[in-house]
Structures are given as C-alpha cells and as structure tokens.
Amino acid sequence: MRYAGWKGVDPFWSEQHLVTSRAAILALHPPGTSRDRTPDPLALLPRRLAVSITRRFEPAWVGRNARLRLPVPMVDAALRDLAVAFDPPCDAPGEVCLADGYAELRLEAAPVAPVTLRVRYSFVAYPSPPPDAPASLDPRERARYLSPNEELVRVTPGIVATARAVTRGVVDSIERVRALYVYVAGRRCGDAFPYALLGAALPPGPPQRGFYDCRMMAALFTALCRGVGLPVRRVAGYLLYPDALAFHHWAEVWIDDKGWIAVDGLTGETSAVLRDSAWIPYLGAVDYRMKVGILPRVFTGSPGVRMPAHWTMLERDAGDAMCTELIDAVTLDVVWTDTLRVELGETLAA
After folding, report:
1. Residue 8 DSSP SS3
2. Which of 316, 313, 315, 288 is CA-nearest to residue 303?
3. So what's the pLDDT on residue 188?
4. Which of 116, 266, 305, 313 is deepest in the core (most CB within 10 A)?
5. CA 257 – CA 77 distance, rounded (Å)
C-alpha cells in the first residue's frame, strides 16, 4: 500500500495513511499545534508516562529452563525517575529476576499452557536534545561505532563510494548527516522488508528495492555515515504515541562538538518521502521515546523461546492498546503476543 502510494498508484497512502501518521506524532503536542509541519520535539515539556507490556508466550515454543524476558528501559537524560513493576504468573513456577535491561522468569519446567508476563514502567520522559557539554568520544568507542561489519551494517566499497558521492563538497558534519539522511529517505518508502531475500549476505551497495523498514533504514544510514568516517550507533526502543505505540529503530551520530545526536527516519515517511518540505526530519532531537537498546552492545537479549526459521510480526489496534504478534511465516502459528499500553500523565516544568 505504501509503495503503491509512493508511486502514485494508490491514493490511500497520501489521503489516509499520512494523515493518521502525522496525527499520531501531533498527539504528544498541545492542542492548536500546527498540522502543516513537523512539530518541534524540543517544545515538549517533561511529562510523566506509564507504559505496560504484557507478553503471552505460546507453550509450543517454550522449553524447559527457558528464560522468558521483557525489556526494561534505559535511564538517561531523556528518561528519568524510572520505576518498574514486574508481574510474573503464579501458575508458571520459576525464578524471577529484575535486572538492568530486562525482567526475566526462569522456568522450572516446560509449560503446558500459555505463559503471560507483565511489566509496567513509570518515568518522566524528556525530548532528546544533544548534551550541553559532551565529553570526548573514547577511541575504543569511536572504533566500535565505525565498524564496517555489524549485523545488518556492511560498509562495503559500494557503500563508501555512494556516501562519498552524496557528501562531496560538504564539510560541516551536521550537513553531511543531513545529506545522507536525505539520500536514504528520499529514495526509499517505509514498508515491511523481506529479509529472507537477503540470503546469506547483504548486497555490496545500497539496496535497490524501493522500500525498507525502520531497522533496515537505520542499518543503511549507519553504514553510509561510517563510510565517510562518522561514528554511528543504532538505537532500539519504543515510540510512545498513544495511538501508535510500537517497537522502533533509529540512529545516533557522534558529532565532535555536540555529542550523540538522534536521527530518525520516521519523519521521512510523514514528509511523503521528502515531498512535503515542511515535515522536516528529526535530526538532532526526537520526541518522547523509551530506549531499550544501543546496538550492538546493549540489548535485552533473547526473549527465551525457540524462534521459527521464517517469521513475521503483525501489529493491530486493540482499542486502548496496540497488539503485536510474532508469527511463524510458514505455519501461521503465533509464537508470542505483546499488548502495549501508554498513559500520558501530567506535564512538568522544564
């Protein structure tokens, strides 16, 4: 649907999807905020939020001594005063562990019925600006976030050649980041990405398919930035829009005189693939987020189940919540189901 809309074949994308996507972002901002442009994330005041995730594991995919996990958000300048309440089931005996980064139930035996875990987080959320006085980047960290080979990130000769061509003549680091973002966002439409088509190796240059998901875009953007010497780390977390609570990937680029700055491809889509210049990208700051990983070093780890060889994720609106199902793409069996809710609390003084 999105790809067809981008190509001008189906009007639903521009007439309905873009409108609802923009409305989801605007829901965090005060009434009366202009709907004609990207709202400024830095205009948001600190706000108390409560988020809950309920995950139902189907027993066919859970073995004995399984460690079933849910994420716990990272505390940083954009997420403070975190409190976590973990509610393991009483009918699935095991050891409960609440640690930095995850909440876990270590089962004593393989279950015969679904196992449901629930965790609730409350915190004060802030928009994510660059730090006021960034420290210098440790040389080992710089080398890590310039790595040419990191999961989906491949800094190949084709990637380097493309990145250099896109940034030719651009000296300022922020403007180089902007140029690479425009290159990626302006030539790709956000949609589900068929990872099975990648095979054993990624292509030597930028993918030629006309669509990506947020994970693939973050990886491609990371590779291009690293191709011209800009350290980048990929971030995993949750969008906290009440009507579009969802797992998401974005990136953070190290700028020597600014520190880590956020770059998110989300507004690449809400700008109608950069056709609407008023909906500029999130570059340097993003709105409220719940960060659960900085890849490849910090992440929740395995959810604790046997994963099918080929799987997909389906999201659906469940009224006051968002449901996400991980499904075996061959048998269509459900592996687990997440139910996510967010409650917007009071705003606080800046």
Report:
1. coil
2. 313
3. 59
4. 266
5. 18
Which residues lie below 8 Å from residue 252, measured CB to CB, with a gap of 6+? 232, 233, 235, 260, 261, 262, 263, 294
What is the phi/psi pair of residue 105, to 5°?
Answer: -120, 120
Question: Quick check: 116 and 110 in contact, CB under 8 A?
Answer: no
Nearest to 145 by CA among 257, 202, 206, 230: 230
What is the sign of the dihedral through the CA atoms of 185, 188, 189 and 190? negative
Q: Model confidence over 65-123: pLDDT tens digits?
A: 899 999 999 999 899 999 999 998 888 889 999 998 999 999 989 999 999 999 999 99
Query: For the chain, what is the mean pLDDT?
Result: 87
Q: Distance between alpha carbon 31 and the CA centroid of its chain, in Å?
A: 26
| Length of the chain counted residue by residue | 350
pLDDT at residue 275, as a whole number: 76
Which has more pLDDT, 315 or 146? 146
- 300 and 279 Cβ atoms separated by less than 8 Å: no
Flag whether pLDDT at 132 surpasses 60.
no
- pTM here is 0.90
**Phi/psi-derived region of residue 199, left when phi > 0, alpha when psi is between -120 and 50, beta in every other case:** left
List of residues 6+ apart from 107 with CB closer than 8 A: 62, 64, 65, 66, 67, 68, 92, 93, 94, 115
The pair phi, psi for residue 141, each rounded to 5°, is -65, -40
Backbone angles phi, psi at 176, to 5 degrees: -65, -40
Measured between alpha carbons, how far is 38 from 278 in angstroms, rounded to an integer?
Answer: 7
- Measured in whole angstroms, how far is the alpha carbon of residue 291 from the centre of its chain? 8
pLDDT at 210: 57
Q: Shortest CA distance to 241 belongs to which of 74, 20, 60? A: 20
